[in-house]
Design a protein that fits this description.
- The chain is an alpha+beta fold.
- It folds into two domains: 136 residues, Nucleoside Triphosphate Pyrophosphohydrolase, CATH 3.90.79.10; 62 residues, Arc Repressor Mutant, subunit A.
- 25% of the residues lie in helices and 27% in strands.
- The chain contains five helices and ten strands; from the N terminus they run E-E-E-E-H-E-E-E-H-E-H-H-E-E-H.
- The strands form two sheets. Strands 1, 2, 3, 4, 5, 6 and 7 form a seven-stranded mixed sheet that branches. The chain has a three-stranded antiparallel sheet with strand order 8-10-9.
């Protein structure tokens, strides 16, 4: 077969879906766009992939340029390629997602004029987003709802030490359902992946709860059970 005489050009974008958990709320990282197309709209951090740039490198670069965040581990979520998803023509986007702890995160500060600002927005009352970003967010939520049933991804959102109530609250928010308190705690403790700390909450008006820590080493060595929860 004869080789083509010139390289094909492709138009790809990367969109980043980054979740955080703060003050009892699941949040998502958004930007305020500063370009003519959907100007002043809220959107996921995303932009075009360079012709000589790998997709994963582009994801890291784009997230940094639009939010100021570095060294965030992201997994590839899905490829969105509907013909009419971009007003100017066929543009395929590769979506990546991440779940991070917000405690101690540095200030969000775009380093490009493409975004006016970056900020964390509660997932429960998102506004309409630019392009098909609403669909990308919904796809990512479906992904973490499935994943939380068999991997301990919730601990990536929680502080290093947490109470069982905080843990259950996060599961209920992600799964969008109410869980039985006694059943939830029994299951979590039976998995034997939580380390009880010799420390309790301070400065609370109610009965202070014990703090726990996720034992990742024990999980990697012993955990074979499925983290499934029923209402």
């Amino acid at each position: 077969m004869q080789e083509p005489e010139h390289k094909f050009e492709s138009i790809f974008t990367v969109d980043c879906v980054v979740f955080g958990f703060d003050e009892g709320e699941l949040k998502i990282l958004l930007i305020e766009r500063n370009e003519d197309l959907f100007k002043s709209w809220w959107a996921l951090p995303g932009y075009y992939v360079g012709q000589d740039e790998g997709i994963e490198h582009a994801a890291e670069r784009i997230l940094y340029e639009l939010t100021g965040l570095r060294d965030i581990y992201m997994e590839q979520l899905f490829t969105f390629g509907d013909v009419d998803r971009h007003p100017k023509g066929r543009v395929i986007t590769v979506a990546y997602f991440a779940m991070i702890r917000l405690n101690g995160q540095k200030e969000l500060k775009p380093v490009t004029s493409y975004a006016r600002k970056a900020f964390w927005h509660p997932i429960k009352d998102l506004p309409q987003l630019a392009f098909d970003h609403d669909k990308i967010v919904e796809k990512s939520l479906q992904k973490i709802r499935r994943k939380i049933s068999y991997q301990p991804i919730a601990f990536e959102l929680l502080p290093e030490k947490f109470t069982l109530t905080q843990l259950q609250n996060l599961y209920e928010i992600i799964l969008n359902c109410k869980l039985d308190k006694r059943n939830f705690r029994k299951k979590m403790l039976n998995y034997d992946i939580l380390k009880e700390l010799d420390e309790k909450q301070r400065g609370v008006s109610y009965r202070a709860a014990k703090y726990y820590k996720f034992d990742r080493r024990k999980y990697n060595r012993l955990f074979q059970k499925e983290l499934s929860f029923n209402k």
